[in-house]
């Protein structure tokens, strides 16, 4: 089968298409023919070894010093189950699914084997494979952090990076929780953020960013830009600052100090992904409360160009990659 391998860290050109052995499912696994995957910030950071300085050594110790040990990248996918192991009961041959592979990676390939207990469920009936493939990584992260925000009906929620991969899902999820949502984005993305449900938008190029006294219940930072103190000051008492980005040490220290010495909370870290939350997202999609915003679509042999585009830092929503045609 064809796969994209990353044998060393570096620019997009380190990615190479090659032939690898097609996997065979174990007793508790399913073999999935992958129709679509994505290129997101997680993929490009791993490929380029772009890790926060404080975590650089431990991350490389875990992943590989010269290149990723698991050299087929890709953290999310949509496809069809081609065969199942003898002990599998949750899925059957022919099921159309979408899934997160998480730290196991492997979605940049024509086939993958996943445990039936993986973060995987039946694909939403009202989504294409490309749309569904873009859901697991960013939407699960957005859902995890917004749950931590204890959002109630009428809560004032600000989402910084509202036009990005996590941000576009976060706006819609916060609205499904009946929050009053303000999105922060650039001038060119104002209409997009309004179209997915934001009640207000802040153009960070022209307008003032959140400031002391704005009294937000929750501020969700999906990009990690700007001083953390400005976000904290814009929270009301007992407000919550959520960070979906890995923080540098000074921001971590400031966050801990805030949580320990005030009524405000700073919550960060990695988001655990679960099949139950993916099923919840599927239900929101099928009831029309959540959709995927796709910026650009690429074919499998254009993976280098897709990584170059995401590296440029101007991605709106998601970049999808068609791996194999459903009719093949």
UniProtKB/TrEMBL annotation:
<dbReference type="InterPro" id="IPR052733">
    <property type="entry name" value="Chloroplast_QOR"/>
</dbReference>
<dbReference type="InterPro" id="IPR011032">
    <property type="entry name" value="GroES-like_sf"/>
</dbReference>
<dbReference type="Pfam" id="PF08240">
    <property type="entry name" value="ADH_N"/>
</dbReference>
<dbReference type="GO" id="GO:0016491">
    <property type="term" value="F:oxidoreductase activity"/>
</dbReference>
<dbReference type="Pfam" id="PF13602">
    <property type="entry name" value="ADH_zinc_N_2"/>
</dbReference>
<dbReference type="InterPro" id="IPR036291">
    <property type="entry name" value="NAD(P)-bd_dom_sf"/>
</dbReference>
<feature type="domain" description="Enoyl reductase (ER)">
    <location>
        <begin position="10"/>
        <end position="321"/>
    </location>
</feature>
<protein>
    <submittedName>
        <fullName>Zinc-binding dehydrogenase</fullName>
    </submittedName>
</protein>
<dbReference type="InterPro" id="IPR013154">
    <property type="entry name" value="ADH-like_N"/>
</dbReference>
<dbReference type="InterPro" id="IPR020843">
    <property type="entry name" value="ER"/>
</dbReference>
